[in-house]
Amino acid sequence: MNITEFIKKSPKAELHLHIEGTLEPEQMFLFANRNKIKIPFKNIEDVKKAYNFSDLDSFLKIYYEGAKVLINEKDFFDLTWAYAKKCKEDNIVHTEIFFDPQTHTERGISFDVVINGIHKAMQKAEKEFGLSFKIIMCFLRHLDEDSGFKVLNKAILHKDKIYGVGLDSSELGHPPSKFEKLFKKAIENNFITVAHAGEEGPPEYIWEALNLLNVKRIDHGVQCLKDEKLIEKLSKNKIPLTVCPLSNIKLRVFDNLKDHSLKKMLDKKLIAMVNSDDPAYFGGYLNQNLIETQEALNLTIDDIKTLLINSFKSSFLNEEKKKEWINKI
Ligand code: HPA
Ligand code: ZN
Questions:
Q1: Ligand 1: which of 18, 22, 63, 281 to mutate, most ligand atoms within 8 Å of CB?
Q2: Going from the N-terminus, what domains does the chain have, and what CATH number goes with each?
Q3: Which of 20, 60, 64 to mutate for ligand 1's pocket (most ligand atoms within 8 Å of CB)?
Q4: In angstroms, rounded to a whole number, what is the distance separating the alpha carbons of residues 325 and 328?
Q5: Burial class of 209 by CB neighbour count within 10 A (0 to 12, 13 to 18, 19+)
Q6: N or C end of the chain, less CB within 10 A?
């Protein structure tokens, strides 16, 4: 079996995926038409042309614009169901997905509409495809902590559906320390915590996420290589880093996939794995990320195995389930 076939056929876990980031241009038009929402694009070609980003903020502007077509529970259901079908195609057997309630509640959509649509679609996928899942609610870090408390209070009412909380959106100027009290309350309410840190931001933000937010995983974290002490801490404490290679290229964190630090991270015994972040915007789902990264960095089949094992190990599955999947790789 060649390495591409191996990637496609292996069971996989995805740990860094924003459900709003799976909104394909075709769906954007479909939802815009049925909800009578105006979007600033004439056709699909027009949308694809706009997906040319210079950094994280230039992406977020378009991403929040796109999310405005999501209005009803059915929209959130259809969006999530379409992603579940992609999981089946890519042989993803377990997925931990992010959603950003404030992107929707800030424009008058109710929290319940968002979470119920997403959760019902994931439950259907669990029943029909055997896809296991966890849902993680992200706070938007460009907003203030009070706005975060409002959605955390809603999440507490949906604890049966939401496994953990995370932190995303515009990183620079919005350090994890801004949300220390909010994360403390989330932990008191039995949510596990993760945070985007060290995507564009400095190693200091990763330290803060670990020390102040008590995160179990760092999302992205590629900037950790600038700080030897931090590398030591991450590897000693086995803190996973959910790396997203195609995202990093689209948002110009690295100039070229050949310059990506993933292989260096593995060489330093960091627990890194490959994820797709916002696949509709960044050029591909999980298999595409793995295939392109393997080619660009000349990864061996053993490197790929390590990446796939790391993703199951770093998941929030129970130990028995982790072992079961790892044995099937
Ligand atoms: N970084 C920060 N916020 C995000 C991202 C990301 O990669 N994707 C969606 N929201
Ligand atoms: Zn992300």
A1: 18
A2: 3-328 (3.20.20.140)
A3: 60
A4: 5
A5: buried
A6: N
Per the structure block, which two tokens stand in for 13?
């876990």
- Strand-pair partners of 219: 196, 242
In the numeric block, which tokens belong to residue 78?
């259809």
Q: Mean pLDDT of successive 10-residue segments in the chain (329 residues)?
A: 96 99 97 96 93 97 97 98 98 99 98 99 98 99 98 98 99 98 99 99 99 99 98 98 98 98 98 98 98 98 98 98 98
Residue list, ligand 1 pocket, CB within 6 Å: 18, 21, 56, 168-169, 196, 199, 247, 277-278
Catalytic amino acids? Answer: 199
